[in-house]
Amino acid sequence: MIWGNDVFIEKGPHAPANEALKGRAAAMPVAKRHYVLGTPLQGPYPEKCQQLILGLGCFWGAEKRFWSLPGIETTAVGYSAGYTPNPTYEEVCSGQTGHNEVVLVVYYPDTISIKELLTVFWESHNPTQGMCQGNDCGTQYRSGIYYFDEQQKSLAESTKAQYQVALKRKLVGSGAITTEILAADTFYFAENYHQQYLAKNPDGYCGLGGLGVNL
């Protein structure tokens, strides 16, 4: 399933295309409805909705952070910004697909703005760790914003610059932000047991955590 465009994007040194796993043609079967919100997980979504794909570490906690916000139609966890078609969780964790663990956020822009979503994004993780998030390390844990239009791209870049200033001002010695900002590519739904995982498993692990610095 394609969420975005068909433009080839060079993903960078973390995912050489010629070393990526081959994957498969069949998409991952997932539930029809969001476990918490009760809305369609795979769409079709209401015409008024917009979409954004975000990577901020383990997608279990990241998804919960966004489905809890007002103005959200649905969320889903999956894999994006890589090469392997329809990858499995184990394949993504191998580092041989180039994919990131991401959250698809479908939202009503008249209720929650892209700026508000990006503020939650920046404040909910450490965007300076490169291929790690907390104690979770691997290419699939990198920080990323995957935009669908020029407004999202512009705000992603401007809020990145603003947050870098805030980090330098409040956390002496903080590193440079490593968040990648790319056009939204193919979004592959993760296995059904990953969808809304922390609602199904309230005691499950979640390493999501910010730096205490506001945008």
From TrEMBL:
Pfam (any one): PMSR
Keyword set includes Oxidoreductase: yes
This protein's GO CC annotations: cytoplasm
GO biological process, one term: cellular response to oxidative stress
Active site residues of this protein: C58
UniProt KW Oxidoreductase keyword: yes
A molecular-function term among this protein's GO annotations: L-methionine:thioredoxin-disulfide S-oxidoreductase activity
Domain (Peptide methionine sulphoxide reductase MsrA) ranges: 52-206
Reaction(s) catalysed by this chain's protein: L-methionyl-[protein] + [thioredoxin]-disulfide + H2O = L-methionyl-(S)-S-oxide-[protein] + [thioredoxin]-dithiol; [thioredoxin]-disulfide + L-methionine + H2O = L-methionine (S)-S-oxide + [thioredoxin]-dithiol
E.C. code: 1.8.4.11
InterPro entries: Met_Sox_Rdtase_MsrA_dom (IPR002569), Met_Sox_Rdtase_MsrA_sf (IPR036509), MsrA_MetSO_reductase (IPR050162)
Keywords: Oxidoreductase
Domain of life per record: Bacteria
Protein family membership: Belongs to the MsrA Met sulfoxide reductase family.
Function of the protein: Has an important function as a repair enzyme for proteins that have been inactivated by oxidation. Catalyzes the reversible oxidation-reduction of methionine sulfoxide in proteins to methionine.
Name of the molecule in the record: Peptide methionine sulfoxide reductase MsrA
Annotated organism of origin: Candidatus Endobugula sertula (Bugula neritina bacterial symbiont)
